[in-house]
Design goal:
By secondary structure, the chain is α+β, with helices and mostly antiparallel strands. The protein has 4 helices and 9 strands. It has helices at 4-7, 11-49, 54-59, 143-146; strands spanning 72-81, 86-95, 101-108, 115-117, 121-124, 129-137, 155-162, 166-175, 183-190. A hairpin with a 3-residue loop joins strand 7 and strand 8. The radius of gyration is 29 Å and the shape is elongated.
Length: 215
C-alpha cells in the first residue's frame, strides 16, 4: 500500500495545519471566555461596593441612563471677551424627522439678557436645516464687580433649541483685558427617539410643579 505522502504530498500537511488552527482557535476562545467571566465578577463586585466609575455605571449594571424625555445636552463652551466685544455661536439645526417641525430658540440663565439670536421661531420641513447665530455682548463691569477679586462663574447662558426634543448648550464667558477667539459652530440634530432600551420601564413621568423653560 502506498503512503499518502507519495501520492498526495500536501494532504497530510493540510490536515495537520487544519487541526493546529482548530486547536489554536479553541485556546483563544477559552481565553476570551475566561476574561469575560473575570471582568463580569469584577464589575459586579464593584457595583455591590458602590465604587464603580461613572462610565462603568452606565455601561454595566448599576445605573439606568436618563429617560428620553429629559433635555439632551449639546455640550459646553467657554469664551473670554473684553468689555464691548462679541462672541458668537452658530447653531446648525437639522430636522431629521419625516415631517415638518416648528422650532423655538431661546436663552436662559443669569446672563441670558446679553444674548441675541438671528432668529428665534421657524419651521423646517423634513431634512431641512438652518443656521441660527447667537451673539453674546460682553457688558462693562460696574463698580461693585470691579472691586471683586474673583468670581467662580462670571457670565453664563444656556442656549435652548426646542423642536421635537429639547436640547441645550451651556455657554460660559469670562471678561479679559483682550478677547480670545470666540466663534463656535454646534450641530443640532432633532428627531424622535424610537429606540426601546431595557431600562425604559424604570422611567415613570413625574412632571415638576409649575412651568418648564422660558416664556
Amino acid at each position: 500500500m502506498r503512503d499518502c505522502a507519495a501520492t498526495k504530498p500536501n494532504c497530510c500537511n493540510e490536515i495537520e495545519r487544519g487541526l493546529s488552527d482548530l486547536v489554536h482557535a479553541q485556546i483563544v476562545l477559552g481565553r476570551q471566555v475566561l476574561k469575560f467571566a473575570v471582568d463580569g465578577v469584577r464589575i459586579t463586585k464593584n457595583c455591590l461596593q458602590g465604587i464603580v466609575p461613572t462610565r462603568a455605571k452606565r455601561d454595566a449594571c448599576c445605573e439606568a441612563a436618563e429617560p428620553c424625555w429629559m433635555p439632551h445636552s449639546l455640550g459646553e463652551i467657554t469664551c473670554e471677551l473684553k468689555a464691548g466685544d462679541k462672541g458668537t455661536v452658530c447653531l446648525l439645526i437639522t430636522n431629521e424627522d419625516f415631517r415638518a417641525r416648528t422650532f423655538h430658540v431661546s436663552a436662559t440663565g443669569k446672563s441670558a439678557g446679553f444674548v441675541t439670536f438671528s432668529q428665534k421661531d421657524f419651521t423646517l420641513t423634513s431634512k431641512e436645516r438652518v443656521a441660527v447665530t447667537a451673539e453674546f455682548l460682553m457688558p462693562k463691569p460696574d463698580e461693585a464687580e470691579q472691586k471683586k477679586d474673583c468670581s467662580c462663574i462670571e457670565h453664563e447662558a444656556i442656549l435652548w433649541v426646542r423642536g421635537c426634543q429639547s436640547q441645550y448648550l451651556r455657554w460660559t464667558l469670562g471678561s479679559a483685558c483682550e478677547s480670545a477667539r470666540c466663534c463656535h459652530e454646534v450641530t443640532v440634530h432633532d428627531c424622535p427617539d424610537y429606540t426601546l432600551h431595557w431600562y425604559d420601564h424604570f422611567h415613570i413621568l413625574r412632571p415638576c410643579v409649575g412651568s418648564v423653560g422660558d416664556k
